[in-house]
Structure formats: C-alpha cells, structure tokens
Structure prediction request, 261 residues.
Amino acid sequence: MQIYPDVLQLRYQLESNLLMYIPNDEYLIILLDSIDQLETDAYDCQWLPALFPKNVKCIVSAIPDHGNILANLKGIINYNPFLSNDTEHLLVNVPPFEASTVDIVYNDWLSMKQRSLSDEQRSFIRDLMKERTEILPLYMKLVFDIILTWHSYDLIDFELRKLKNVDDCIRYLFNHLTKIHNNILFRRAICYMTACRNGISQNELEDVLSLDDDVLKSVFQHYIPPIRRLPGILWTRIRNDLDEYITEKEVDDSSVIYWYD
Prediction:
C-alpha cells in the first residue's frame, strides 16, 4: 500500500482503502485526542474524512477556542445552527469538573499511584475544590501533582488556597522543583525550553546550558572538571520530573521537546 505525504491524498487513502477494509461484522473506533497539539497547518482538519462507514466511529477532541478547530470541524459535518437537530448530537461540550467529581477522580488516581492522604489532607483538598467556581481538567491535574509531593506527616500548606488558576499551580510546582534541583539550572533550563517555540532537542538544550557560565558555576561549586560541560544526568533528572508536561515531535528528522499546551 502506498503512503501519501499530501493531506488530501491521505484522506483519500483513508476513505477509499483503509476504512473500506474493515469487515462488516466488526467495528472500529478511532480516537483522536487533543488534535490542537498537531502542527498548525493541520488545524483546517482537511485530512479528516467527512464520512465514515457505519461500523467505524471517529471521536475527536480539541480545545474549542484554539486555532479555529471547532469551526473547521463544524464545516466538515455541515453544521447549521438553524438546523442543528441533524448534527448537534455530534458535538459534545465537556464542562468543567464539579468538586464531587474531582474527589472520585482523585481516589482513582491515588489508588493507581498506590498513595493515600490523611483525613486532614483529604478534607483540605475537598474544601479547596469547593471554593472553585470552575474546575478545569488541567487545574485538577496540577493540584493532584502537588498532592503527590506530600507525605502523610506533612503539615498542610495553606498557601495552596492562593492557587486560583493553572498559572498559579505551575508556579507553585516549579518553585517546589527549584528546591529539589539546582535552582539556577532548573530556571535556565525551562527558560531556554520556553524560548524555543518550535521545540529543542535534548542535545541542543544540554549544549546551551553548558555555554551558560552561571549554570556551570552553580553546578561546579566545589571542583573544576577537566571538561566544562553540564553532566547529562542533571538535565535527565529535571526531564523526569517534568515528563508529564513535555511532549515530543519530529522536526527535520530530529526529535525535539516542547511544552504540552
């Protein structure tokens, strides 16, 4: 089977070849999550077939106000706001979480992580979520990541009540990580990553950090190595702690990392 690099040819290949090979007595569910993470030239969704066989279902998720993706998807399904009964059932809005739902999700996540909370900690988190008028999935996930840093004997950090949004949670987590890793190294590493909008390879990031005199001085405080270069293990440790917030993609046949947004 020939592989087509062109978007329209790819859609044709799906419609005329791949999807038609699904046996009538079998079912295929295609789940395309977070298509807003694709390259911007894919936001028009022209690569997505407009029609699928009856035994094939395609579920697509995206941030509704990102890159005009929702409008493009509506165009594919011929959505008409004046005749919405025919296509409205195809669009499902995922609302913010309620505090009671967060409690259920946290219980499942804690069980998967083989962790638990003290009664005081659990009560604090419930009250924290009840204070929120809107609980976004990312906010809920970031608060959970903060919870995972706790021990049962830790005192409640009431500074958490000041975490009103996602940005506050990210700052809190990053401040926590600066205490675990070298402060200057961690801050410079995330700054360089953020500055590279199209991503940066791990080798490139280590090269840039190795050229930063402030980073090297903070790392090599007690001795001078024969080669002034950042030990790769230091970035690897940071990368491991940031793993859930970083994604990879291929650029010019090279793997680069960038923030998951």
Notes: The chain has three domains: 7-90, 99-178, 182-259. Residues 127 and 152 are 18 Å apart (CA to CA).
